[in-house]
Each structure stands twice: as structure tokens, then as C-alpha cells.
From TrEMBL, chain A:
Identification of the protein by name: RBP11-like subunit of RNA polymerase
Flavoprotein listed as a keyword: no
Keyword Transmembrane helix set for record: no
Keywords tagged on the record: DNA-directed RNA polymerase, Nucleus, Transcription
Organism: Dacryopinax primogenitus (strain DJM 731) (Brown rot fungus)
Cellular location(s): Nucleus
Annotated DNA-directed RNA polymerase RBP11-like dimerisation domain residues: 30-101
UniProt-recorded Gene Ontology molecular function terms: DNA-directed RNA polymerase activity; protein dimerization activity
Family to which this protein belongs: Belongs to the archaeal Rpo11/eukaryotic RPB11/RPC19 RNA polymerase subunit family.
This protein's GO CC annotations: RNA polymerase II, core complex
Automatic annotation (TrEMBL), chain B:
Cited PROSITE patterns: RNA_POL_D_30KD
Organism superkingdom: Eukaryota
Keywords (A to Z) from UniProt: DNA-directed RNA polymerase, Transcription
Gly residues bias: start-end ranges: 331-346, 388-401
Stated name of the protein: RBP11-like subunit of RNA polymerase
Chain spans, region Disordered: 325-401
Alphabetical list of CDD domains matching this protein: RNAP_II_RPB3
Family: Belongs to the archaeal Rpo3/eukaryotic RPB3 RNA polymerase subunit family.
UniProt-listed GO biological process terms: transcription by RNA polymerase II
């Protein structure tokens, strides 16, 4: 009854800001950041890596209610940089990490596909129905498909 | 923490099993979540039933029809979300139309996903659009795009189509279905995954869980096969250890290959993070700072930004994922195989943050754009030390699947 339309869980409304930053008035170098239209997927990951940063004294998040499509992130730093800077730094580090993993994945997929001579994944063989035994075209080492760069 | 690594244990056409190391538990879990809920696929979203004299009611049937996995290879680039599409109802860029028209004349029969026939767009899409940018959306679609995953897309001769309903003589079903692009956060039918297995610490060395048992814990809780990968626990509880090996088993429904589901998941994570970084920068800098523009898709992680940077404009200006331009126009990054689109100058750096690599390049679009005016405060040199792409560097942008 009170639930939003499902798509409102991940699309910003017109003019809605992606984040809202409230600096804490009672704790030094602390801020509360409300991130709209995101959930634990982003929040927990960021929290985890914020805590690895020595500049961060406190980092925590909560998703206040399952029907509220936002989460609240609290960060306190040691004063050498602002919470927002630390957050940006962490996100950039995470983006780099994802990039690394992506490269690893591609390398491994390529290797594994060669190794086992995988038949094409779903959807790949043309319109015709090819029985398993007769599908003889081997995967060329330098074959390109849409997943390659 | 050591460098992240992936080891694929098993790869089949519809599943992949791998071990991820060198990342935090929170990251591994986010990756799991993003594969399950944020990777776009195509699924039937609207069913207009004309005749239904089967034993199942209309709602029951339309639900079943919606669940059919449709081949969605490269759906992210090959199709638009309805909300991003300038068309008034349905058009070839945001919808696929199917007909199902079955009548049982003899005995009994099964209605299956094989009876779903795709209607060519010319028969239902009469809207005139300026199609300069849109044309290449269609060309990005993978083979068999939109075809129900089943005998038509699978070389396995034993593969059966998906049953919808069983009919008897005299019964009929006639309906028109419209498939849309979507993500599983909206409805689970859009999930590329049937299941994602996720495990860490198979020996329960970290004591993150306590097993309930009747008599003998060891006998009642057999070890999983992942337990072979790790040494059994010693006598002493190591309270400093943290989880660092994660066992994934990604099983797809057939709409996407497991490779694509994983890589798209990563791209989706990157997009979420980039959206957040962008939002942070917007807070730091005055709202209308020159050069601070990004593809509107990044602001909310999904391409709903038709209003701002629209599709209709020049080719490839609008969306995050289609902008190969990033990779290609970065000076020095274009030709080399190491050219991740972000900060291609950084390929050698161990961990590209804080570096001022290629990010300030006058790229056509996106982050590099900051060089038009303000220099980015924290230097967003996102490196992607990749180089795995072999010879073909020209195309090797991030997101250029």
C-alpha cells in the first residue's frame, strides 16, 4: 500500500539529487550522506572499503526502511581530509578494483573457453539447430565476439 | 590485502563457478547482489489476451509467459528502457512483440515457448523517428536477440521448450505479448540468474555461523566441496583472520551467457560508483561549473536520462555504455591495448587512485571532460591495468562489450 512503484527504487525523480551531505555539528570531521535510489549493494561495499582507509575513524551505513529507496552513510575522518573527499577517494579506489577484476575475468574466461572448447553460449549459434556432435567449428584462438574488446 | 584474483573452476554454457580472492567480503557480496538484481535483460512485460479457453486464467498465463527467458545478448546496448524511449508506446528500439496463436484440434497438446513467434517490427512499429543514432542500437544486439531460450538457441538436441499450458481438443489461446528491457529490481523475471551460489569459509573457521545439531555436528553438516580448497582448521581459533576466499556459482536462466552476466555485473558496479563520485564532485563544485557534465545515465546508475542528453542527438553522446568514444579519443590510450577508457595512462600503477592519468584528456564525453574547465579536485585517474585484450586495442574501452 505504501510501497513505491518498483522502478522508483532505482531511478531518480526529476530534479532529485543523487546525494545530500549534512555535516555534523557536534562531531568534528563527520558527515552524514544520504544517497538516493541506492541500496545495500553500493552501501555495504563502500562502508567496507572506507574502513580500510586509515584516515577514517568511523564509517557505517543504514538503509532506514525497506520501502525507502535510499541509504544513509556516516563517515568521520581524522581531519586530514573531509568525509566527502574520503568517500570520493574510496569510490575511485573501488572503481579501479572493479576494473582489475574485470580484466582478470576476461583473461580467465578466454583461457577457460579455449581449454574446454565451450560450445557457444545460449543464443549464440545461428538460427539453425545444431546437434551437439556435429557442431565442429573450433573456436579460433583470435576469434572475436561481442564480449571481446 | 593481496591483489584481487579470479580462478574459474568450471564454465558451461549456462553456469560458471569461480573463486574470487583478494577482495573484501562486502565487495564479494555486492558483486553477487549486482549480478542478481541489476543486470538488464529482456522479458515479456505486457500480454494482451484475445482468446483464452484453456484451463488457466489469463493472469496465470500471462505470468507464465512473462517468466520465459528471452535471449538478451548485449541487451544493455541493444535496447532502450521504455522510460528512456521517446516513442509514444512501443517501437523497435524499446520493445519486441510476439504473437501466440494456438488451437488444439486433435487430442491434447502442450503450448510451449516454441509457439511464441516474434512479429517483425515493420508490422507494428509505424512511428517515424529520426533514426541516425538509433540505427546502431539494433546492430549491437547479439544473435537470436529476443528468441526464447530453448531449442532454437541451444545446440543441445535434448533441450526442450518451456511449457506454458496443456490444452485439449477445442481449446485455444491467442495473445499478443510485448517484451521490454528491465532489471530484476523491478521484477525478478528480468534477472539473468536462476541462482547465484555464494560461500566463504567452508570450514567455519571464522565462526560466522553456529551449526545446530542433534548429536554430532560433523556428521550432520557435511563439508561442501569448497572445503577442499582450504586447509582444515587448527586447534586454536585465529581471531585475526578475515574472510578472503569467495566461492561463486553463477547459474543463468539462458537469457544471458554467464560470462556476460558477470562482466555486466562489474560494469554495473562501476557505474554505480561513478555516479556517486560524480555526485560528490557536484557537491564540491558549484552546480554550473563548466565542464562538469556527464552522461545523464550516470547520475542514477541507469539510463533514464532521456531529457538531458537525449538519445536523439548525435551518435553515441548520450549513454554511458555506448560511449566508446571515451576509450578511443583519449590520447595515447587509443591505440595501445592497455587503454582502459579511464585514465589509460595509468596502466602501470598498482592501484590507480589518486593518480592523474589520462582522466583529464579532452575526451568527447564524460569524466575527461573536466579538463574543459575545472581540473578535478582529487584527480580521477581510474586506471584499468588490463592489457588482456590482445592485439585489438582500438576497441578496448571499458564498457565496450
Amino acid at each position: 500500500m505504501n510501497a513505491l512503484q518498483r522502478f522508483e527504487l532505482f531511478t531518480l525523480n526529476d530534479g532529485e539529487k543523487a546525494i545530500e551531505v549534512v555535516e555534523d555539528t557536534k562531531i568534528p570531521n563527520a558527515a552524514t550522506i544520504v544517497v538516493a535510489k541506492q541500496d545495500h549493494t553500493l552501501a555495504n561495499m563502500i562502508r567496507g572499503y572506507l574502513l580500510k582507509n586509515p584516515k577514517v575513524l568511523f564509517a557505517g551505513y543504514k538503509a532506514p526502511h525497506p520501502l525507502d529507496p535510499h541509504f544513509i552513510l556516516k563517515i568521520q575522518t581524522d581531519g586530514t581530509s573531509t568525509p566527502l573527499e574520503v568517500l570520493q577517494e574510496t569510490c575511485n579506489a573501488l572503481i579501479a578494483l572493479v576494473g582489475k577484476i574485470d580484466a582478470k575475468f576476461r583473461e580467465q574466461f578466454q583461457q577457460k573457453e579455449l581449454e574446454i572448447g565451450l560450445e557457444e553460449p545460449f543464443g549464440a549459434p545461428g538460427a539453425g539447430r545444431l546437434p551437439r556432435g556435429e557442431y565442429a567449428e573450433p573456436r579460433r584462438a583470435n576469434a572475436m565476439d561481442y564480449l571481446d574488446f | 590485502m593481496e591483489d584481487p584474483a579470479i580462478r574459474i573452476r568450471e564454465l558451461a554454457k549456462d553456469r560458471v563457478e569461480f573463486v574470487m580472492t583478494g577482495v573484501d567480503l562486502s565487495f564479494a557480496n555486492s558483486f553477487r547482489r549486482v549480478i542478481m538484481a541489476d543486470v538488464a535483460t529482456v522479458a515479456i512485460d505486457m500480454v494482451e489476451i484475445e482468446v483464452n479457453t484453456t484451463v488457466l486464467v489469463d493472469e496465470f498465463l500471462s505470468h507464465r509467459i512473462g517468466m520465459i527467458p528471452l535471449t538478451s545478448t548485449n541487451c544493455e546496448e541493444g535496447m532502450r528502457y521504455k522510460r528512456d524511449c521517446p516513442c509514444l508506446g512501443i517501437c523497435r528500439y524499446c520493445a519486441i512483440v510476439y504473437d501466440i496463436d494456438v488451437r488444439c484440434t486433435e487430442g491434447e497438446m502442450n503450448v510451449t515457448s516454441d509457439h511464441l513467434t516474434m512479429v517483425p517490427p515493420d508490422q507494428w512499429d509505424h512511428e517515424e523517428q529520426d533514426s541516425s543514432a538509433a540505427e546502431d542500437i539494433l546492430s549491437k544486439r547479439g544473435k537470436n536477440f529476443g528468441v526464447p531460450a530453448g531449442p532454437a538457441t541451444d545446440p543441445d538436441p535434448n533441450r526442450r521448450p518451456i511449457s506454458l499450458v496443456r490444452m485439449r481438443k477445442g481449446q485455444a489461446l491467442k495473445a499478443r505479448c510485448v517484451a521490454r528491457k528491465g532489471i530484476a529490481k523491478e521484477h525478478a523475471k528480468w534477472s539473468p540468474c536462476a541462482a547465484v551460489g555464494f560461500e566463504y569459509d567452508p570450514h567455519n573457521k571464522l565462526r560466522h555461523t553456529a551449526y545446530w545439531y542433534e548429536v554430532d555436528e560433523k556428521a550432520e553438516w557435511p563439508l561442501s566441496k569448497n572445503a577442499d580448497e582450504e586447509a582444515p582448521p587448527g586447534d586454536v581459533f585465529d581471531f585475526t583472520s578475515i574472510p578472503d576466499r569467495f566461492y561463486f556459482d553463477v547459474e543463468t536462466t539462458g537469457s544471458l551467457a554467464p560470462q556476460e552476466a558477470c562482466l555486466r555485473g562489474l560494469a554495473e558496479l562501476q557505474q554505480k560508483l561513478a555516479g556517486l563520485v560524480f555526485a560528490c564532485r557536484k557537491v564540491n563544485e558549484p552546480a554550473d561549473a563548466p565542464g562538469l557534465q556527464m552522461p545523464s545515465t550516470m547520475a542514477n546508475g541507469h539510463t533514464d536520462g532521456f531529457d538531458k542528453n537525449g538519445w536523439g542527438g548525435g551518435a553515441q553522446t548520450a549513454t554511458w555504455n555506448t560511449s566508446r568514444a571515451w576509450a578511443n579519443t583519449a590520447p595515447g590510450g587509443g591505440a595501445s591495448s592497455a587503454g582502459g577508457s579511464w585514465g589509460s595512462g595509468n596502466a602501470g600503477s598498482p592501484d590507480g587512485y589518486g593518480q592523474r592519468g589520462g582522466a583529464r584528456s579532452p575526451a568527447a564525453n564524460g569524466w575527461g571532460n573536466a579538463s574543459g574547465g575545472a581540473t578535478s579536485p582529487s584527480g580521477n585517474g581510474w586506471s584499468r591495468p588490463d592489457g588482456s585484450s590482445g592485439g585489438d586495442g582500438a576497441d578496448s574501452g571499458w564498457g565496450a562489450f
